[in-house]
Write a structure and sequence with these properties.
Number of domains: 2
Shape: globular
InterPro entries: MpsC (IPR018745)
Pfam family, one: MpsC
Number of helices: 7
Number of strands: 8
CATH class of the largest domain: Alpha Beta
Oligomer: single chain
Strand content: 25-35%
CATH topology of the largest domain: Threonyl-tRNA Synthetase, Chain A, domain 2
CATH architecture of the largest domain: 2-Layer Sandwich
Length: 227
Amino acid sequence: MVYTTQDDLLYLSSRFSKTLKSRFGKGPETCYVVSQDNRLFIYIGNFMTPAEEVLVANNQVNMANNFRASVINVICKEFINEASKTLGLKFHSCFHDWNYDTNKGIFIIESNDIQSTDHKEVYFEKGLFEVMGRIISKVHKTPERFEILKWNQSVCVVECREVLLSMDRYLFRQGYSDILLEHSREMKTFLKSQKDQLKLVFNREVEDLFIIWDYEKDRSIIVFSLQ
């Protein structure tokens, strides 16, 4: 397992923020990197270009997402190399999700060599998985397995396994990313509408929510930002 110093994480935060600014002409107001189990979590706040603001205001969210994704995918490849060099660990994949309504985003960068620490069972784990399964089943396939990847007072990251429908696989193979993205947004909207149920589990408000899809490995990662 990789061991990171605070200086390493501050350097990567600064590097990532500067890269966003150089590629988009505007950098985020907040950008910080945390590390756990050979994963990097990058939290972004207040980052929307004037062009994206116009597109979102005119309900052209797919176009805004496509524009952002095309640039972000290039940035991810560059940053994976930078993070690998800085931390001495080979990272292989980068996933991201954005919420234009809250102007926040998250990146998760992973190594294929994930070495989980021995997580103690979180006190609300069973209740959370039951609630998530019940909510998700109303809009999508119920995941076969859940696992908490990260938990503290401000965030809970849950990995969901075996989540794809046959149609999801077909759309992914055919490159229909717009349809998959639209469904993901609808799923996020529905999950957010169930905040009262989630509040009972976490004993705190869900401030924001992200869903990251890994279609190649049949999984999703749901990030709950907590107040």
